[in-house]
Amino acid sequence: MKLALNQMGFPADSLQTNAKLLADAGYDGIEPNLTADGPLWNDEAVDEFADQIAELELDIPAISTTLHWERQLSSGDKETRRTGIEAGERMIEIADSLNAGAVLIVPAIVDEETPYDEAYRRALESIQSLAATGAEYDVTVCIENVWNDFLLSPLEFAEFVDQASKFGPVGAYFDVGNVRRFGHPEQWIRILGERIERIHVKDYRKDVDTIDAFTYPLEGDVDWPAVVEELTAIGYDGWVTAEVPPYRTAPERMPPRVCSDLKYLFS
Fold first, then answer.
1. What is the mean pLDDT of residues 88-98?
2. Strand, helix or coil for residue 18
3. Cβ density class 173-196: b for 16+ within 10 Å, e for less
4. What is the pLDDT of residues 193-222, one digit of tens each?
5. Spatial contact of 54 and 93, defined as CB atoms under 8 Å apart
6. Which residues contact 205 (CB under 8 A, 6 or more apart)?
7. What are the angstrom distances between the C-alpha of 143 and each of 92, 140, 146, 198?
8. Closest CA to 88 of 128, 117, 46, 130
9. What is the structure's pLDDT at 210?
10. DSSP character for 107?
11. Are strands 203-204 and 214-215 parallel, antiparallel or unpaired?
């Protein structure tokens, strides 16, 4: 499998500096985020980044973003949905330019203002629209399981992916740690099967009932041998990308240490 680090864990400010750090740490790839005011909106900056990662012999597993927590694809407000779709379309363009092949999308947010059934319908329509764009670029729209009170079982997750994929390439960006709060990642992997296009990894401590329960791989309650076994069983041999924060002290020490642990688990 190929190993990468998501922008959440970047120890430095610039993409260029982080790319060099990750290459030196032994990663195969770097996963940047599209942010509201970040450099990936600029085509020239994207081209320069493409040149740098080529020189470093790095690849891009996917383009991710946190924008869809605000520009919600399931919002009852048409303008909000429109801006969310525009962000997704820009991600697809960047993925094409950087040969990433995939984008990470949060499909919906269920809350007091957005009932589950309405969120499902609007999210499906939004993802189908992005899937059609993805088909034009040969980029897969990958749905991630996050703490959004949506797609709470692997069976429902699989059905959503299947419905959306009628309009273009859609798959699952499966986050191992995000499931552990209420389920067993290895069971989700078996059920989602070949729908899984990308993997995010972090760990989760069941004895901590807050967001602080997330931790680094091997430090929580994920059954990593079972996860690896199920990934092997479904024939997954793609990207494994760590989505963890940098250390508060000496942040540059986190990437090589996590890379070493990922190699232990997945090599």
1. 98
2. helix
3. bbbbbbbbeeebbbebbbebbebb
4. 999 999 999 999 998 877 789 999 999 999
5. no
6. 213, 214, 215, 219, 220, 221
7. 13, 10, 9, 10
8. 130
9. 73
10. -
11. antiparallel
Instruction: Report the pLDDT averaged over residues 14-41.
Output: 97
Distance CA 92, CA 103 (A): 6
- The CA radius of gyration of the chain, in Å to the nearest whole number, is 17
Tokens 């399981």 sit on residue: 145
- Give the pLDDT confidence of 98-136 residue by residue, as tens digits: 999 999 999 999 999 999 999 999 999 999 999 999 999
Both tokens assigned to 100:
């990433």
User: What are the structural domain ranges in the chain?
Assistant: 2-266
Question: Quick one: 134 exposed, middle or buried, by C-beta within 10 A (0-12, 13-18, 19+)?
Answer: buried
Q: What percent of the chain has pLDDT over 90?
A: 96
Return d(Cα 267, Cα 185) in angstroms, integer.
19
Q: What are phi and psi of 141, to 5 degrees?
A: -85, 115
> Rounded to 5 degrees, what angle do the CA atoms 88, 91, 95 make?
140
Residue 267 confidence (pLDDT)? 86
Q: What is the CATH number of domain 2-266?
A: 3.20.20.150
